[in-house]
Structures are given as structure tokens and as C-alpha cells.
Amino acid sequence: MFKLTTPPRIFASISLLMILVMVVATGLIQAPFFRKSIIDREAAIVRDMVYALTVDQDVSAADMQHYTDAAARRRFDQSFSTLVKLPGTARIKVFNRDSTIIWSDDPSLVGTQRSAHREHLARALEGEVQALFNAAGNRFDTSAQARQTEGTIECYVPIFAHGTDQSATTVIGVLSLYRDPHDLNRTIQQGLYLLWATIGGGGIVLFLVLYKVFRLVYDRQQAAESNLSKLTSEHERIVQIEKMSAMGELVGEIAHQLNNPLVGVINLTQLAQREAHDPERVAELLAEVRKAGTECRDIVQRILRINQISRSTLQPTDIQALVKDTIAFCQQSIDLRHGVDLTAPAESIVLNGDPVLLRQALFNLIHNAVLAAPEAPVHVALAVADRDKVAGIQLSVTDSGPGFDSATAAKLFKPFFTTRPTGTGLGLSVAQHIVMKHGGVVLAENLPEGGARFSIWLPMTTKP
Ligand SMILES: Nc1ncnc2c1ncn2[C@@H]1O[C@H](COP(=O)(O)OP(=O)(O)OP(=O)(O)O)[C@@H](O)[C@H]1O
Ligand SMILES: [Mg+2]
Fold first, then answer.
1. What is the pLDDT of residues 353-410, one digit of tens each?
2. Region 225-253: what's the mean pLDDT?
């Protein structure tokens, strides 16, 4: 018995079952057709025999009407008694056009009108050969040896007149022949066995071919899946290694950033210890210590702020208002000599975003632009812009500073990368982190006319 654990086995069991059902169903559906065609063939043979016998004995329409005449009876006996010898014949009745039995192997029926299937008789009188299987049992053999359950085959064949051309289509009577279907049933049985064997054989060949194909496809799929899982785990391992090395690099940078002011603090305090007798010098050194400490705190605070980005809360945000607020804030907090101009569409643009974080990102870009070109105004532009067929908005900050070289371009968004003596190198990486959290990107480009443009692109998918 199959244990239905693996798919090929399930497939094999289901298809075998289907083939079995198909074979049995075909056998059951075909059996009646098979029987009908054999019975029809039998009836056609009887019709031909009757025709040959009646022609031979010259049985005429007049004989059918005057069936009690001695000459007619002799011709009937010579014609029809041959049929009684057909194996399995149980009864023969010959009817004339008035449906009266004019001859039978049971003489007591002659002169009567006994027929169980009047409609078949009527059709046969119109020239049609009628054949039917009567499953009701053997009506004629009432002996103990009779095979009661096998039924009877009943044929009604027209007897045609012969002589002139038109009379060949004139029906002068009907012969009904009742036969025991035992031999026929055996033929049908053998035919069905052959049919089932053929369908079953075909089914098994089909099953084997299908199974082979299925097995092949299944094995290939399994191999592909195992390769994929190997690749996935290899990929995860590489990503993990990359994460670890990026973290190591970041920690190294933080340590480096904090190390300089901390070394300064140690050196300054050692100096203060040595010069403890001079209070003025000590006060000077303590001021330096405080500056180094403040620097350390600023670095730590900026790192902590990166952590806050992960906890953003999105809400419908009016981008125009946000840009105006940020520019106003820049004017208060940065030493702006020339201000910031803004170009924006008239209608308001509302996106789902974290206004605090987006303000911070834009501020970082404006701050960089001001530092790159303190002597020239900074230009901010807001526009609706598609990117890779995705609807969105673009917020660009343009300056007329020196731009950046290719070595700088490769590291712009790297945390702690800075070319400025007082910079921490976190402005752009923080801006990029914020924008990416909103599903957008930060773009950097040098302008042909000089200066640089840093743009924030946000998708409209974040629309409320
Ligand atoms: N508008 C600009 N024009 C030219 N170079 C720029 C511009 N903005 C940024 N850069 C380059 O990118 C570097 C990194 O910028 P980022 O804002 O990350 O750090 P930073 O400005 O140096 O320090 P801070 O942490 O104070 O922002 C800058 O040091 C500078 O070399
Ligand atoms: Mg900066």
C-alpha cells in the first residue's frame, strides 16, 4: 500500500485511481452499445436468411392471407422450419399483415394475434428490422435447465414480396424470432474484456509516461529549490558579513571621532595638574576641557538623533508649508548673508510623511549649500516629478559653490565622511536615511554652470 507522503506517490495514486475509474466507466458505458450493435447484426442476418428462404419457396402475399391452405402451409414449413434449427432459437412466429400468426413452431399459436411488442411488430410491417433485448428472463423455456436471468433477444424482420420490382418493397408479413442470448452474452463478455484490456493497457502506458514526466519535473524542481535555498543562505551570510563590517567601520569612525577630543581632555587635565599653582592657566585649560567635552556631547547627540529616525510617525504633511518653515528656521539659526529663494507650484502638495524628519533632511541640505557658497544665495525648488514612471515630488537645493570631485562623490553619503574641518560628516547620511524611510532618494549632481544641486525625491505613494 502507498504511503502518501511524497508528491510523486500522491500523483501515482491519484492517476492510477483515475485510470481505474476511466476503465470501469468506459466498460459500463460501452457495454449496452456493444450489445445493441451485436443484436442489430444478428437481426440483419435473420432478415437476409428469411428473404433467401421465402424467395426460395416462393412464399407470396396470397399465402399469407390464405395461410390454412395445404400448399401455403407446406411452403411455410419448408421456409421457416430451417430457422428453428438456428442454435438458441426459443420461438418463431410469422405474422401476416393483419398481425395474425400464420405459422409458428408452436402450432397452438397459429390463428391467434399474440405479441408482447405490438409497436415493434407495426414498425417491422412498415419494412424496418427491429431487434431488442428483453432482460425479463427466458419467456419460452420454462424447464429447470433454463437460464432464467439471461433474458431473450427478440427480432422482428419484415418478409418482402418478390417478383416485380415494386413488390420488392412490399411487406407481406413479419417473422419474429426469439433467441436465448447465452452465446451472444459470451461474445459480449469477451468483447468487453478485450475493450477493458485495451483501455487499461492504454491507461497504464499513459500513466507511465505521465509519471516519468512528472518525476523528471519534480526532481528538477527539488534540485532548483535546494540550489535556491543554498544560494539564499549564502546570500544571507554575505549580507551578515557586510552588515558586520559596516558596523565595525561605523564603530571605528565613532571611536575615532570621540577619541580626538577625549585625548585632548586627558592631555589638558594632565597639564592642569602640573600647573595647579597658576589659577589663571588652570581656568584657561578647564575652558579647553569644557570645549572638548561639548564636542563629544554633540557627536553623541547626533548619533542618538539617527536612532530617532527609526521611530518616525507618518501624517498628512503640507510640503509647501514644511519647506517655508525650514527656510525660516535656517534664516534664524544659520549665518545667512544672502537668504534662500523658493520656487514652488501654486497648489499645495500633501504627502504622508514625518514633518520633523523631513524638515531635518531639508535643513541639512540647505546648511551644506550655505557652507559651500556663503557669498551667494541658495535656491530651493519644489516640483512635481515622476521617477521610473512613479509619480512623486522633487525638492532641490542649488548652490553656486565649487561642487564636489569624483572621489568625494563616491563617499558623500557615507557616515562621518567630511571635507570640512568642523563637520561631523553626518548631515547627508542622516538626510538620506530619512528620505529612504519615506521610500524616496537623495540625488547629488554638479551643475555645468558651476555649483552643486542636492535633491530629495519622494514618491506620491506616501500620499495620505
Ligand atoms: N553643497 C555641497 N557642495 C559641495 N560639497 C558638498 C555639499 N554638500 C556636502 N558636500 C560634501 O559632502 C561632505 C559630507 O557632507 P555632510 O553634510 O554629510 O557632512 P558635513 O557637512 O561635512 O558635516 P555635518 O555633519 O556638519 O553636516 C561634505 O564634507 C562636503 O565635502
Ligand atoms: Mg553637512
1. 999 889 989 999 999 999 999 989 999 999 999 998 899 999 999 999 999 999 999 9
2. 80
Q: What is the pLDDT of residue 449?
A: 93
**Residues measured by CB to lie within 5 Å of ligand 2, the ion:** 368, 427
Query: What separation in Å is there between the alpha carbon of 384 and the centre of ligand 1?
Result: 26
Is it the case that residue 164 has pLDDT exceeding 60?
Answer: no
Which CATH superfamily is 311-462 part of?
A: Histidine kinase-like ATPase, C-terminal domain (3.30.565.10)
DSSP 5-52: TSHHHHHHHHHHHHHHHHHHHHHHHHHHHHHHHHHHHHHHHHHHHHHH
CB of 427 within 6 A of ligand 1: the answer is: yes
pTM for the model stands at: 0.51
Residue ranges of the chain that CATH labels 3.30.450.20: 7-180
Looking at the chain, which residues constitute the CATH 3.30.565.10 domain(s)?
A: 311-462
**Is ligand 1 within 6 A of the CB of residue 398?**
no
Atom of ligand 1 nearest to the CA of 369: 1
**In degrees to the nearest 10, what's the CA dihedral of 180, 185, 188, 190?**
-130
Q: Any residues with CB less than 8 A from the CB of 264 and at least 6 apart, and which?
A: 288, 289, 292
Distance, CA 418 to ligand 1 centroid (Å)? Answer: 6
Which ligand sits nearest to residue 407's alpha carbon?
1
Distance, in Å, from the CA atom of 312 to the CA atom of 430, rounded to the nearest integer, reads: 13
Evaluate: CB of 425 within 6 angstroms of ligand 1: yes
Would the CB of 426 count as within 6 Å of ligand 1?
A: yes
Instruction: Write down the architecture of domain 7-180 according to CATH.
Output: 2-Layer Sandwich (3.30)
